[in-house]
């Protein structure tokens, strides 16, 4: 079965089946343009794509997939050092970009054997390329770890198909939908789900270019994807949010959705958002369901074919009691094949019995619902002999009417081991002592912040995740 089934007929084909930042293509035109790219890249070891939110990016990615060439999305804002590392490490021979687009020369000419490949959506080819094996590599997606250069996660075509089919079932995603989002096209969320998902289910796709409230409101979709920053901005724009009322489903991911934003969106749009969890290495493994309960702060249940488990620091099973925190490990057909050229990282990532160590800590209830606490490296705080999830303290802080946002870290402390420090963006008059007392009234006293720092904003990456290592570094300098 073809990976991108909707490109091969049977789903209808409007002239604007695919729209990116105001420019449209039919699926037939996309297939012709992508085949022209496939003709030029066939046999290459890998195809890097300067992944701006454009039609050219989509055409180049689909062209690589048609040719059976591993696709390496390159973040357009990556610096010279990161670009050069990704190009060298992936073995990419070509860097696809829009015709007339300025290509960073230090990321092409500066890396031996890499040539620029201009992409024109107006090109057409009728060549027939054989469908690659399901075990073939579809993508090498680079993900930054805690140390060192980004690692390339090798994603098989079969893993992509398994995940998209599982999500289509979980979200009742069909060819009748119009998917809307404005997410980056170099991550799992925006590219694999947000583009390939539409080309597998047959749904229409509208990429808004930038994920603005106005863009989402004007798109007229039935299915919307967003990260918490997008949903927070929509919740702050009641007029725009109200225009999403005719939609069928709102999906949030890439970072935890604050409960106040969940509640505001529900009130303004009439839709309780779907929340889901995944990683570059695992794709999307856990989600609430279109026809099931949508619980604030929870990412729901494993998708079809995926199994999860919680493990303690000594490798012991952690009970599913809704309170005990453990490392989340996953198994199933959506997992990556390993890190490119990194056997050392592979050895750390997998357990002896074949489960992937996510590095995230979570809580699972008796009903199987998952709540992600955060990264074990920064969100599992060991203070005074207690194991405390930063996410629980953050949620309590956000319940305060004068708190717009919050991030909690475990700062080194001679007495406690780690002290709970809260960075809070206020939305009114409030003091650190008041917030500490507020948390202590709602959670166990040992979970209260030992220190509260009021800040104008929190540092975040492109997907809205708080950069806690930056906060830890800044805190150490205070």
Polypeptide structure, described:
With 478 residues, the chain is α/β, with parallel strands linked by helices. It is built from 14 helices and 25 strands. The strands form 6 sheets. The chain has a 9-stranded mixed beta sheet. Strands 4-3-5-6 form a 4-stranded parallel beta sheet, sandwiched between helices. The longest helix has 15 residues, at 27-41. The mean pLDDT is 91.
Gap between N and C termini: 57 Å
CATH structural class of the domain at 5-165: Alpha Beta
Mean pLDDT: 91
| Fold-level CATH name of the domain at 5-165 | Rossmann fold
Q: What's the CATH superfamily of the domain at 5-165, by name?
A: ANL, N-terminal domain
By oligomeric state, this entry counts as: single chain
Shape field:
globular
Percent strand: 25-35%
Structural topology:
Elements: E1 18-20, E2 23-25, H1 27-41, E3 47-50, H2 55-67, E4 71-74, H3 80-90, E5 94-98, E6 115-119, E7 137-143, E8 151-156, H4 157-171, E9 178-181, H5 188-201, E10 204-207, H6 213-219, E11 223-226, H7 228-235, H8 238-242, E12 249-252, H9 259-269, E13 274-279, E14 283-287, E15 301-302, E16 307-311, E17 326-331, E18 338-339, H10 343-349, E19 356-364, E20 370-375, H11 376-379, E21 380-383, E22 386-389, H12 390-398, E23 403-413, E24 417-426, H13 432-442, E25 451-454, H14 468-476
Parallel strand pairs: 1-10, 3-4, 3-5, 5-6, 9-10, 9-11, 11-12, 12-13, 24-25
Antiparallel strand pairs: 1-2, 7-8, 8-18, 13-14, 14-15, 16-17, 17-19, 19-20, 21-22, 23-24
